[in-house]
Amino acid sequence: MHLFNRRKTMKKALILGAALLLAAPLSAQEFWELDPQEADLSAGRIYRTEVVPYELRHDAEARRAEQAGSTIPFAPAELERGERGTVAGASVEIPFEWTDGVVYLHLENVGSAYTLFLNSERVAEVEDALTPAEFHLTPLVRQGRNEFRLLLRPSRTPQIDPEPTVRRPRFAESYLYAQNGRSIRDFEIALVPDSMRRDGILDLKILTLNAYNYDEKVEAGYDIYSPQGKLLDFNIREIPIPGRSTDTVRFHPFIYHVNENRWTADTKTAPPVYRVMLFTRRNGTYKEYMPLRIGFGRTEFSAGRILRHDEVLQLRRTPYNAAADRTKTLAEIKALKAKGYNTLCPSYPQPAWFYDLCTEQGLYVIDQAAIDAPERRTDRSVGGTPSNDPRLTQEYLERVKAMYYRTRNYPCVVAWALGSPSGNGYNMYKAYEWLKSVERHRPVLYEDADGEWNSDLELD
Questions:
Q1: Which of 265, 290, 315 is at the close of a domain?
Q2: Hey, which bits of 262-354 come out as E strands?
Q3: Residue 459 pLDDT level (bands cut at 50, 70, 90)
Q4: Full-prediction pTM beyond 0.85?
């Protein structure tokens, strides 16, 4: 399935009626084989890995997004209150150079369901207030001042909304950012064992975008440094891409001496982490950098067991949602690890820095979609539990997609959970089927499957 299918695409895939059928999505492998593809460049919500591009390498390495001018903070002010909700707005000056590229908005900590408008045009409607969201804005952006409005309103799906455990300032960590018209649109990355388990292979696929109306050549590449700071590999390739299309640049280099740098949560100290930098280049000039942290090893589900480095994982789990800020969260997860826990189970998707911390400190994560419908969970009639209400199928799928695409590249994520115990039924079946179609290695779990087929295993 394409990484950037919008809500309208999902609507076409759903046929509601006495027998509601969902068109079977492509597997992850099939997606990467369909190259090149026409890019969906309409304005709306997108689903992809959450990472900020930088113009300069030293800013990327230090992750100084705001100070480097790579992002514009987005903090709309309250304008009015009414029966339908609260209207918040911001007037933002878009830099001239941004208008020749692609412009995105990252929204986080909105605090309620919302409808997003840009320059009087509706961009998207979002019911899930807890999962950070990304929006492609380019068709609606104009040079100079742009008017953003958000209608902060009651959710249309309150029966499945989790209750947040911490409330951060409204719009905290929200921002606008831009990329060149020839840029990295997404990627898949993992440092995995080779077939002989002697060395490693960097399995990297970079989805590159040509947003212009004419054919262009795009150069994309990477470098990778060992945990000890040694440059291990560097490569860059040029690929011709038709106008308004994407294509994939693939790299599969051998990385040696990896077994001494295995990433695992079963250590008292922080595990070794490799540093990777993705980048694009144009006429000898580097245009964007994306900094990543990855760990050696692959989490796999086989014969009813979760494995890493061919050893069965012993998951010592505890519920945990990130604290109000990174500093407090770091202190808390260190304390949990000192108590012997090695697996954190959040009740809904967390800020990106939470997964960074878990990767750096060595903690597994079972990532969970923002679905919590405990009421009527035992009512399996159609429309009884929300999980068996066909009118909510699209919302269930959107929440699972938003969870998956944000964090699928983190080594700390060892499994996916469909949601909190919320009964079972059609929506959970479809959510499970979709996740299994895009995730080839890690298990999909659901506590309320109650012995049915839409959970890969039951954890003790």
A1: 290
A2: 274-282, 285-294, 299-302, 305-308, 311-312, 317-319, 343-345
A3: confident
A4: yes
